[in-house]
Amino acid sequence: MEKYVIQGGKPLRGSVEISGAKNAAVAIIPAALMVRGVCRLENLPEISDTDTLLHILTYLGAKVNMINRTTVELDCTHVQMDTLPEDMWNLTRRIRASYYLIGAMLGRFGRARSTMPGGCNFGVRPIDQHIKGLTALGADMDVSGGFIRATAKNGRLRGTTIYLDKVSVGATINIMIAAATAEGRTVIENVAREPHIVDLANFLNSMGADVRGAGTDVIKIRGVKSLHGGAYTLIPDQIEAGTYMAAVAAAGGAVRVSNVIPKHLECISSKLREMNVEVEEGDDYVLVCRNGPLHPVNLKTMPYPGFPTDMQPQMTAVLCCAPGLSVVTEGVWNNGRFKYVGELKKMGANIAVEDQSAILQGVEKLTGAVVRACDLRAGAAVVIAGLAAEGVTKVEDVTYIERGYQDLVGKFRALGADIRCIEEPESEPVVNWNAG
Ligand code: EPU
Fold first, then answer.
1. How remote is the C-alpha of 361 from its chain's centroid?
2. Ligand 1 centroid to residue 255 C-alpha, Å
3. Helix axes 238-251 and 266-274, enclosed angle (nearest 10)
4. Domains of the chain in sequence order
5. DSSP classification of residue 265
6. Which atom of ligand 1 lies nearest, measured to the CA of 239?
7. Does ligand 1 come within 6 angstroms of the Cβ of 436?
8. Per-residue pLDDT tens digits of the chain, which is 436 residues long
9. Is 168 in the pocket of ligand 1 (CB under 6 A)?
C-alpha cells in the first residue's frame, strides 16, 4: 500500500508545469468512441482515471497507440460493441466518467448498456438530468439493478430542446456527446459552463461536429451524420493549478505555476489575494508568493465561473492557519463534501461543520499526523496541510490522489518539498473506491 510521508514546514520555490485537465480528458476519451478515424489527443494527463478509460476502449476494440506519455492516438473506427462486457464492470463502477460511454455508444450505435458509474462518495449522486436529456433525445432509458440500458427509438437520436433543472457538468457532457450525431438540432438550456465543457465542444468540433455556445448557459448542436478523425490538444487542469497555488499559500514561498490559462484561475487567484497571497498573471503562467500571515476569508462554491467545489477541500486546508474566523460553504454538493475535516482535525485544525458550511478558527500551526485521503480533492487537502504542518504527516489511501494528479510527489519535490512515496502494509481495509 503506497503512502506519502511529508516533513512539513518547508516553503515551496521554483516552477511547476500543470498537466492536461482531468475532467476534460475523462469526457473527451469516451467522446472519441463517436469518431470514425484516428483521434490524436495531446496534453492528456498521466493519471489512473485516463488509463482506466483507455483500457475500457481497448477492450471494446479501439486501437490505442501511446505516442509519448501525454499523447495518444485513438482509433475507434472498428468498435462495434454497444454493451460494456462483464469484465469491464469493476472499472465502469469505479469511475464517474464511465457514464459518458452511454452518451457516446447511444450516439454512435443507437444503443448502450453499462453499469451505474462510481465516483467520489459525496452521498447521493443522482443522474436524473442525464436520463431526462437522453430520453428527450428519443432514447428509452432503463436504470435498474445497478445498470443503465439505453435504446434510441428508430435506431438514431433526434434533436430537441432540453432544459436542465440543475446545472450539471456530467449531464451537459453526456447530452452534448449523444447529440453530436443526432438527427436535427438540439438546444440544451441551463448548462454547465466549466472550462472542460468548452474543451469538449472544441474537441467535438475539431472532429466535424457543430456545437455552439459552450461556455454560455445555452448550447446549440446541429447533428452531423458522423465524426471524423483529427488532432486535439487538451486544456491545462484548472484544479491541479489551483492545488499548487493553494499549497504555496499554505506552506509559503514563491512558485511559478506554468502551462495554465490564467482566466480559468481568476476566482482562485482573487480569493488568494484576499488571503494576503500575491498572485501575478502572465500569458500562460501565474506567479504565486506568500510571505506574510494569511488573512481569514469566507468562500462559497458555485458552478463556474463561481469558486470551484473541486478546490473547496484544498482552500479549507489553507485557511486552517489563517488567524481569525473563516467560513467555507459548499454550494454544489448537498451534503457539504466535508468528510476530510476529521483528518484536518487530527492535525490540530479547529473546524466545525454545520449543514453546508465549515467554520474555521485559524490556529497558529498544524502538526503532522497519520491521515487518509478520503477522496481525490480531500487527499490534496491533507497533502497541503502536511506541507504546512510542523513535523511528519503520513497520508494513506493515496490511490485516490493518483486518479487525478499527475506525479504529485515528483512535482512537489521539485519545488523543494520534503515528500516521498513509500510502500507499507495496509493499516485498515479500504472500503470504497473514490474518484472524481
Ligand atoms: N445533479 C443532479 N442530477 C443529475 C446530475 C447532477 O441533481 O442528474 C446534482 C449533483 O447531485 C450535484 C450538482 O448537480 O449537487 C452538480 O453535479 P454535476 O453533475 O455537475 O457533477 P458531476 O458531473 O457528477 C463533475 C466532476 C466533479 C465536480 C462536479 C462539479 C467529473 C468526472 N467530475 O461531477 O469533479 O465536483 O462536476 O463541478 O467531471 C473532482 O474532480 O474531484 C470531482 C469530483
1. 29
2. 30
3. 10
4. 2-19+236-423 (3.65.10.10), 22-233 (3.65.10.10)
5. G
6. 41
7. yes
8. 899 999 999 999 999 999 999 999 999 999 999 999 999 999 999 999 999 999 999 999 999 999 999 999 999 999 998 989 899 899 999 898 999 999 999 999 999 999 988 877 777 789 999 999 999 999 999 999 999 999 999 899 999 999 999 999 999 999 999 999 999 999 999 999 999 999 999 999 999 999 999 999 999 999 999 999 999 999 999 999 999 999 999 999 999 999 999 999 999 999 999 999 999 999 999 999 999 999 999 999 999 999 999 999 999 999 999 999 999 999 999 887 999 999 999 999 999 999 999 999 999 999 999 999 999 999 999 999 999 999 999 999 999 999 999 999 999 999 999 999 999 876 655 444 444 5
9. yes
Q: Ligand 1 centre from 125 Cα, in Å?
A: 8
C-alpha to C-alpha distance for 261 and 240, rounded to whole angstroms: 12
Using a 6 Å cutoff on CB, does residue 123 contact ligand 1? no
Look up the pTM and report it. 0.96
Q: Find residue 298's DSSP bridge partners.
A: 327
Which atom of ligand 1 is the closest one to the Cα of 404? 41
For the Cβ of 357 lying below 6 angstroms from any atom of ligand 1, the answer is no
- Name the residue at shortest CA distance from atom 23 of ligand 1: 170
User: Residues 6 or more apart from 163 whose CB is under 8 A from it?
Assistant: 189, 190
Ligand 1 atom 15 nearest Cα: 333
CB 230 within 8 A of CB 206: yes
Catalytic residue among 120, 320, 321, 374: 120
Counting ligand 1 atoms within 8 A of each CB, the residue from 98, 127, 166 with the most, and so the one to mutate, is: 166
What three-state secondary structure class fits 294? Answer: coil
Check pocket membership of 309 for ligand 1, CB cut-off 6 A.
yes
User: Is 120 an active-site residue?
Assistant: yes
Pair 279, 257: CB distance under 8 Å: no
Which of 116, 148, 165, 169 is the best mutation target for the ligand 1 pocket, counting ligand atoms within 8 Å of the beta carbon and taking the most? 169
Give 331's DSSP letter: S
